[in-house]
Amino acid sequence: MGRDGSILIANSAFADMVGYQADRLAGRVFSEVFHTEPSVAGAISAVDALANLVVELQHYEGWTVRAKMSKSALMRHDDPVVLVTFENLTERLWVDER
Question: Is 46 left (phi over 0), alpha (psi -120 to 50) or beta?
Fold first, then answer.
Protein backbone atom coordinates (compact mmCIF):
# COMPACT_ATOMS: atom_id res chain seq x y z
CA MET A 1 0.00 0.00 0.00
CA GLY A 2 1.26 3.46 -0.82
CA ARG A 3 1.56 6.23 1.73
CA ASP A 4 -1.70 7.69 0.41
CA GLY A 5 -3.59 4.50 1.34
CA SER A 6 -3.94 3.14 -2.19
CA ILE A 7 -3.33 -0.54 -2.81
CA LEU A 8 -0.40 -0.96 -5.15
CA ILE A 9 -0.22 -4.75 -5.36
CA ALA A 10 -2.27 -7.57 -3.86
CA ASN A 11 -1.49 -11.25 -4.08
CA SER A 12 -4.09 -13.83 -5.05
CA ALA A 13 -4.58 -15.05 -1.46
CA PHE A 14 -5.59 -11.58 -0.25
CA ALA A 15 -7.73 -11.05 -3.33
CA ASP A 16 -9.56 -14.33 -2.68
CA MET A 17 -10.05 -13.38 0.97
CA VAL A 18 -11.85 -10.17 0.01
CA GLY A 19 -13.56 -11.51 -3.11
CA TYR A 20 -11.75 -9.51 -5.80
CA GLN A 21 -9.50 -10.42 -8.68
CA ALA A 22 -5.96 -9.35 -7.72
CA ASP A 23 -5.70 -6.89 -10.60
CA ARG A 24 -8.99 -5.25 -9.52
CA LEU A 25 -7.57 -4.35 -6.10
CA ALA A 26 -4.76 -2.19 -7.45
CA GLY A 27 -5.74 1.45 -7.13
CA ARG A 28 -8.42 0.89 -4.51
CA VAL A 29 -8.00 2.88 -1.33
CA PHE A 30 -7.81 1.79 2.29
CA SER A 31 -11.41 2.78 3.02
CA GLU A 32 -12.77 0.60 0.21
CA VAL A 33 -11.28 -2.56 1.70
CA PHE A 34 -11.33 -1.91 5.44
CA HIS A 35 -14.78 -2.30 6.95
CA THR A 36 -13.82 -0.11 9.88
CA GLU A 37 -11.02 2.39 9.49
CA PRO A 38 -8.89 3.44 12.44
CA SER A 39 -9.34 6.99 13.70
CA VAL A 40 -5.74 7.96 12.89
CA ALA A 41 -4.75 10.02 9.86
CA GLY A 42 -2.72 8.47 7.07
CA ALA A 43 -2.09 4.95 5.84
CA ILE A 44 1.22 4.53 7.66
CA SER A 45 -0.30 5.55 11.00
CA ALA A 46 -3.28 3.26 10.36
CA VAL A 47 -1.02 0.28 9.70
CA ASP A 48 0.94 1.06 12.86
CA ALA A 49 -2.29 1.38 14.87
CA LEU A 50 -3.68 -1.93 13.59
CA ALA A 51 -0.48 -4.01 13.56
CA ASN A 52 -1.02 -7.49 15.04
CA LEU A 53 -4.71 -6.82 15.67
CA VAL A 54 -7.84 -8.40 14.21
CA VAL A 55 -9.25 -6.05 11.58
CA GLU A 56 -12.50 -6.12 9.65
CA LEU A 57 -12.20 -6.12 5.88
CA GLN A 58 -15.05 -5.52 3.46
CA HIS A 59 -15.63 -8.48 1.12
CA TYR A 60 -16.69 -7.61 -2.44
CA GLU A 61 -20.09 -9.22 -1.78
CA GLY A 62 -20.65 -7.03 1.26
CA TRP A 63 -19.90 -9.28 4.20
CA THR A 64 -17.16 -8.78 6.76
CA VAL A 65 -13.88 -10.68 6.73
CA ARG A 66 -12.00 -10.73 10.02
CA ALA A 67 -8.24 -11.06 9.72
CA LYS A 68 -5.13 -10.49 11.79
CA MET A 69 -2.97 -7.85 10.13
CA SER A 70 0.79 -7.93 10.53
CA LYS A 71 2.97 -4.94 11.14
CA SER A 72 4.65 -3.57 8.04
CA ALA A 73 7.77 -5.36 6.87
CA LEU A 74 9.01 -1.91 5.79
CA MET A 75 9.24 0.36 8.78
CA ARG A 76 11.60 3.22 7.98
CA HIS A 77 9.92 6.62 8.00
CA ASP A 78 11.01 7.23 4.41
CA ASP A 79 9.76 3.93 2.93
CA PRO A 80 7.36 4.77 0.08
CA VAL A 81 5.11 1.78 0.81
CA VAL A 82 3.90 -0.48 3.58
CA LEU A 83 3.90 -4.24 3.19
CA VAL A 84 1.52 -6.21 5.39
CA THR A 85 0.05 -9.69 5.53
CA PHE A 86 -3.39 -10.81 6.64
CA GLU A 87 -4.35 -14.09 8.32
CA ASN A 88 -8.02 -14.87 7.69
CA LEU A 89 -9.68 -15.62 11.04
CA THR A 90 -13.31 -15.30 9.93
CA GLU A 91 -14.29 -18.95 10.17
CA ARG A 92 -12.30 -19.66 13.32
CA LEU A 93 -13.75 -16.64 15.14
CA TRP A 94 -17.25 -17.46 13.94
CA VAL A 95 -17.00 -21.01 15.35
CA ASP A 96 -15.44 -19.80 18.61
CA GLU A 97 -18.22 -17.24 19.14
CA ARG A 98 -21.04 -19.77 18.79
Answer: alpha
